[in-house]
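DM between two lab members

TW: hey, do you still have the UPF0473 protein OB2006 entry open?
JB: yeah, one sec
JB: this one, 92 aa:
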Amino acid sequence: MALEEKERIIIPDENGDEHLFEVLFTFDVDETEQSYIAVVPAEQAEEEEVEVYAFRFEEQENEDFTLFPIESDDEWQMVEEMLNTLAEEEEA
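TW: and the structure you got?
JB:
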């Protein structure tokens, strides 16, 4: 059985330092036509408790994408529901 390789992305912080993250999942919301991504720092990916970061993103023409902070409570609630669903599926 082959191990599934996780997608990894580099996200610069506000100081321009680059950090490697492992993508947990992405999802689209049809009603708002927005896309979201949840990531964890690559060095924490195998730990039992990890800090999850979530962003809204827009894909660019050159296969890159731009990340935007999630600012509204409604958006956060939606992302948290997706994280909870994912956690429940992994426990099953």
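TW: got it. The chain has one helix and five strands. The chain has one domain: 11-91.
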